[in-house]
Amino acid sequence: MINLNSPTQTHKLMSAALYINNSTTRVRKDTLSHKVEVGANALLFVIIALVTFISLAYLANANQNATKGYSLKNLELKRTQLLTENEVWDMEIARVQSLASIQNDPKIKSMVKTDTPMFIRGDTAIASK
């Protein structure tokens, strides 16, 4: 008989009831609460592992995006600089090719105007003399 007034004796009797006497060995049965506790701990571990893995994957992806964004910004800055330089060169070409620039060129100013210009036809030989 179990005496409920004595907790230590009740515990001994209840734990003894969990043993199944076999002729050669003693096997202790796991209680349902123990299995649920192990299952809850395993579930908690799996959830923590998944959250850690997803966090690391997100961090790696964010790092790649930040690196690509930085590279893209540098390339856009370089493109803008090259476009500005191209515009400067286009303006320099236009200045050099302008009529005023050609008329003020010292080589052009040193040329002498002829009194009677001689024109050559395209169908005759130039060195005929």
Question: Helix and strand layout, with pairings?
Answer:
Layout: H1 7-17, E1 19-21, E2 26-28, H2 32-97, H3 99-103, H4 106-109
Antiparallel strand pairs: 1-2
Q: What would you note in describing this structure?
A:
With 129 residues, this protein is mainly α. The chain has a domain at 31-99. It is 67% helix and 5% strand. The protein has four helices and two strands. It has helices at residues 7-17, 32-97, 99-103, 106-109, and strands at 19-21, 26-28. It has a two-stranded antiparallel sheet. A hairpin with a 4-residue loop joins strand 1 (19-21) and strand 2 (26-28). The longest helix has 66 residues, at 32-97. The protein is rod-shaped. The N and C termini lie far apart (148 Å). Residues 18-23 have low confidence and may be disordered.
User: What value does the average pLDDT take?
Assistant: 79
Strand coverage percent: under 5%
Low confidence ranges: 18-23
Instruction: Compute the number of strand runs.
Output: 2
Our Rg estimate from Cα atoms comes to: 49 Å
Largest sheet: 2 strands, antiparallel
User: In which range does the helix fraction lie?
Assistant: 55-70%
Question: Count of helices?
Answer: 4
- H/E element sequence: HEEHHH
Strand order of the largest sheet: 1-2
3D shape: rod-shaped
N-end to C-end Cα span: 148 Å
Q: Name the structural class.
A: mainly alpha
